[in-house]
Specification:
The chain is built from 13 helices and 17 strands. With 398 residues, it is of the alpha/beta class.
Length: 398
């Protein structure tokens, strides 16, 4: 098979690497030229079960032969089933299905504002966010993220997303006022550079929200669905459950699925007509989402993720010891690990790619390693050998 000629007719919005993948199997990707890559990017934490997982392929094929789409005009047994499983395994009572992380965030913003609107405090519209946040690329999501790079040139910001320094507790207490609707955090910041929020801080946020009658929103689009070795990242922390949570990425395993989860109370304002989506929760998406949960919620699966996580973490720590000129530190949770670099993170991602290992750059000069949750210890050893070779060459060149 010959690689198609790369098109110049696409928006130039992405700086794409000149690799042309044809197919994938587990943790490996293959180009049209037959070259093999070890995939520790997983489509940016999306391919939670790797590529071509037989159970997902069967689920998608089976559903494709029955029903693709009917819209949200009709009751949906497929959505009810996935929603029931999400709620049974989390704080949530209600679910709204979407097609992406940004849309899940939009639903979270609207749900929070609507809650206060229905509870006699319509002025409560501000959602407090933190530096280094990333919540997607819609106009509201870039306003919430507050990253100038993503805001520049797109006109006025959507109002109501005051942003505070990461970890400044006093600034946070001072910032809450009669216009505050909610506090929004990623329990582990992804794009911002794999920065986990300390457990006591998440509990502190929960207490603060309760004290002021405001809502706690988690963005678990990247860190959720098994990535950290628990079903949701915040479940490592006792007493830090949110009122609203956005998920996407891993729940679809590669099929576009997202969801906004909420408590009965927080979602009560969302009544017929208040929000909508044409595609969200269609039967194809629900079949895949349910199949992903079949695997992730199986007894022992998340425990295995935890074991493999510490194995990966140890290998990364060895690399940090061996290459102190290049690697400053290792940070992250579970299979969401970051190498904080001293040299350019892009150079390190490039060096890994030369060894046919895929990783993802993040903010704060970090390289992200986020293999599929189905990665084996042998795959991790293989990745270690490739990273070692790449860093050794970088060291000599530097
Ligand atoms: C990827 C991501 C989003 C946006 O998801 P899209 O599917 O790209 O819209 C939002 N929040 C976090 C934490 C993410 O990692």
């Amino acid at each position: 098979m010959v690689a198609p000629t790369p098109s110049s007719q696409l928006f130039s919005a992405f700086a794409r690497a000149p690799i042309h993948f044809e197919r994938g199997e587990g943790v490996r990707l293959f180009t049209y030229e037959g070259e093999e890559y070890l995939d520790f990017a997983a489509g940016i934490a999306v391919n939670s079960l790797g590529h071509s997982h037989p159970h997902l392929v069967d689920a998608l094929k089976g559903q494709a032969e029955k029903l693709w789409h009917v819209s949200n005009l009709y009751e949906s047994p497929q959505q009810e089933s996935l929603a029931r499983r999400l709620c049974e395994n989390s704080f949530a009572d209600r679910v709204f299905f979407t097609n992406s992380g940004s849309e899940s965030m939009e639903c979270a913003f609207k749900t929070a504002r609507r809650y206060h609107h229905e509870n006699g405090a319509p002025q409560r519209t501000d959602i407090i966010t933190f530096e280094g946040a990333f919540h997607g690329r819609t106009l509201a999501a870039i306003s919430a993220g507050g990253n100038e790079k993503y805001l520049t040139g797109f006109g006025p910001r959507v109002e109501g997303f005051p942003q505070l320094p990461f970890g400044d507790h006093d600034a946070l207490k001072a910032a809450i006022n009669e216009n505050t609707a909610a506090i929004l955090v990623e329990p582990v910041q992804g794009e911002g550079g794999i920065r986990p929020i300390p457990h006591q801080c998440l509990r502190g946020l929960r207490d603060l929200c309760d004290e002021h009658g405001i809502l706690l929103i988690y963005d678990e689009v990247q860190c959720g669905v098994g990535r950290t070795g628990r079903f949701f990242a915040h479940q490592w922390v006792e007493g830090a459950e949110p009122d609203i949570m956005a998920i996407a990425k891993g729940i679809g395993g590669g099929f576009p699925v997202g969801a906004c989860l909420a408590t009965e109370k927080a979602s009560a304002g969302m009544q017929p007509g208040s929000h909508g989506t044409t595609y969200g929760g269609n039967p194809l998406a629900m079949a895949v989402g349910n199949a992903v949960l079949d695997v992730i919620l199986e007894d022992g699966f998340l425990e295995e993720v935890q074991e493999k996580s510490s194995f990966l973490r140890q290998r990364l720590a060895e690399l940090a010891d061996s290459y102190p000129e290049i690697i400053d530190s290792v940070r992250g949770d579970g299979l969401m690990q970051g190498l904080k670099c001293k040299t350019s993170n892009l150079e390190v991602v490039g060096a890994f790619r030369t060894e046919n290992l895929l990783s993802v750059p993040a903010g704060d000069n970090v390289v992200r390693l986020m293999p599929p949750l189905t990665v084996s210890e042998d795959d991790i050893r293989d990745a270690f050998t490739r990273m070692d070779a790449a860093l050794s060459k970088l060291n000599k060149a530097g």
